[in-house]
Amino acid sequence: MLSVQRPDLLPDPALSREEMEALQREIAAEASFENDLSFDPAAVTDGPLSTPGEGPPLVAGVDQAFLDDRAISAIVVSRGGEIVERVYAVSELSIPYIPGLLSFREGGPIVDAVAELTVEPDLVLFDGSGRIHFREAGLATHMGVVFDVPSVGVAKSLLCGTPTDTTDNLPEGARVPIEADADVTAAAGTVIGHAVQTRQYDSGNRSINPLIVSPGHRVDADTAAALVAALTDGYKLPEPTRRADAYAEEAKSLFDG
DNA sequence: GCGACAG
DNA sequence: ATCTTGTCGC
């Protein structure tokens, strides 16, 4: 089970906006955007074949569903595509969604769900940004640092930063770097993540938008993108995220309908 | 004042 | 995120 390593950096919704931003700068200073993994990222897949001998790493997907003022946080842990554990927690939400401060709304509920885990993931995928954040401390980075676990941010749209090329109609498998600009604390030009086209229609009129992948903690930008691509299997979202998404919806339906 | 931004 | 019918394309 993962345990809180930095209680001083937990997302406190009662902080003022200024204090939240100050905490994010502190988190960014504690975060590592370099690989520090317990497994070989080049051998990761969501299928059975992987590193011979020691077996694939435990990968967790985290996602949430909402119902009134409550958040249902779900975590699904799998190894080589096989589900190892599923947990969820229902938590009261105390503050609204504010761009740039997402972890202060959803971080607490996620911590609640993590407390239910009995296994310790080698990698955690979050729904949102990591380093692609004004102060380089998005949800994935915040949670990664609090638990000191390798993490990756998987977002469906870009919060900030500038793509080095167009991200429209990219072919499947394509990857476009996202660089820090004046809106980001990192030095301009620093690659803080990538647009990753995990899926695309072969032909036709419509096109699928790429995923926005960024390092959370203990993973570099290239590896984060490669891991998400390796964990994807025919759908836009990587499998760990899809499983968490489905489980969150399932848990939610237990409460309403 | 304008712009604008994860879930 | 959530609210929702239809509609296009494989």
UniProtKB/TrEMBL annotation:
One of its GO terms (biological process) is DNA repair. GO terms for molecular function: deoxyribonuclease V activity; magnesium ion binding; RNA endonuclease activity producing 5'-phosphomonoesters, hydrolytic mechanism; single-stranded RNA binding. One of its GO terms (cellular component) is cytoplasm. Belongs to the endonuclease V family. It comes from Natronoarchaeum philippinense. This is Endonuclease V. It is found in: Cytoplasm. The record marks 97 as: Interaction with target DNA.
